[in-house]
Amino acid sequence: MQTTQALVLRTSGTNCELETARALERGGARVDVLSHRRLQDDLPSLAKYKIMVFAGGFSHGDDLAAGRVWGSDLRAMRRELDAFVADGGLILGVCNGFQVLVESGLFQPERAPEERTLALYSNASNHYECRWVDLAVEASVCPWLSAGWKFPVPVAHAEGRFTCTDETTLHELQAAGQIVLTYQGQSDSATYPENPNGSAGDVAGICDPSGRVVGLMPHPERNLEVFNRPDWTRLEGRSEGEGLRFYSDLVAAAKP
Questions:
Q1: Is 16 a catalytic site residue?
Q2: Is pLDDT of 1 > 70?
Q3: Helices marked H in the chain — which ranges?
Q4: CB-based burial of residue 194 (10 Å sphere; 0-12 exposed, 13-18 middle, 19+ buried)?
């Protein structure tokens, strides 16, 4: 059986590409880690991949804004990225990768990037947040995440507050099934620190209208083994973290 090929992209300042590659390999994919510039010099090679992942870190030092420089670079590849998705490819952005995809405009393809009505801003706490949170998968158009699944995962970011320019945008995303993941709390609405950044609607991750471009602020690749969890000593009989299922489901959905 043919193995799904995945591409993890890196650039100046990214630092999560190796753990992301390992997560995809554990999920059953064959993985290449390439620099953005190398891909840009050989765009036809993108056709051999079924998954493309933008890893976390601080691309280009987060100068100007988190993900803005790399996101702007992606606009020059927009035609190739659109073709990749139209041909059945899946794109994932994690943490800084999510910020990059937001800046690229991929989540609102009907708008010019500079006219987008959503962004990821500085955390409401005004400082870097590094903690474990609980996520829930919402009913959405994303083809590989099962609605109702809840799982713990770490966050590590300073600019992860999902914000819309108006309430209409949030309602439109909800109605279109583009809200994929939300932070979970003890009540109907998560409060700090359950919602670690103050995101509108407790949004932790979204997708584009096709469901094939997904971005989230938390790091599932940091929960591959049960001992990654702070409560692992109370989880007898388990060896795998929930993040492995996240990446395994991604790979399974992309099988050729």
A1: no
A2: no
A3: 17-26, 36-41, 68-74, 78-86, 96-104, 167-175, 242-253
A4: middle
Longest dimension (CA), the chain: 51
Question: What token pair was written down for 37?
Answer: 């510039």
- Structure token pair of residue 106: 């991929």
Check if 127 is active-site: no
- Please identify which of the residues 16, 142, 219, 242 carries the catalytic annotation: 219
User: Over the stretch 198-224, which tens digit does the pLDDT of each residue have?
Assistant: 999 999 999 999 999 999 999 999 999
95, 142, 164, 207: which is the annotated catalytic residue? 95
Contact 40, 82 (CB under 8 A): no
Per-domain boundaries in the chain: 5-253
ω into residue 193 within 30 of 0, thus cis? yes
Q: Which of 103, 129, 221, 242 is catalytic?
A: 221
Write down the pLDDT at residue 67: 78
- As a whole number of angstroms, the distance between CA 34 and CA 241 comes to 27
Catalytic annotation present for 95: yes
- For the stretch 111-153, pLDDT in tens is 887 888 999 999 999 999 999 999 999 999 999 999 999 999 9
Tens digits of residue pLDDT in 77-102 = 999 999 999 999 999 999 999 999 99
Question: How many whole angstroms separate alpha carbon 47 and alpha carbon 80?
Answer: 9
Measured on CA atoms in the order 228, 97, 155, 207, is the torsion positive or negative?
A: negative
Rounded-to-integer distance, Cα 38 and Cα 28, Å: 25
**Partners of 32 in beta bridges:** 7
Put simply, whether the predicted model's pTM sits higher than 0.90 gets the answer yes
Q: What is the identity of the amino acid at 255?
A: K
DSSP lists the bridge partners of residue 206 as 179, 215
Architecture per CATH, 5-253 = 3-Layer(aba) Sandwich (3.40)
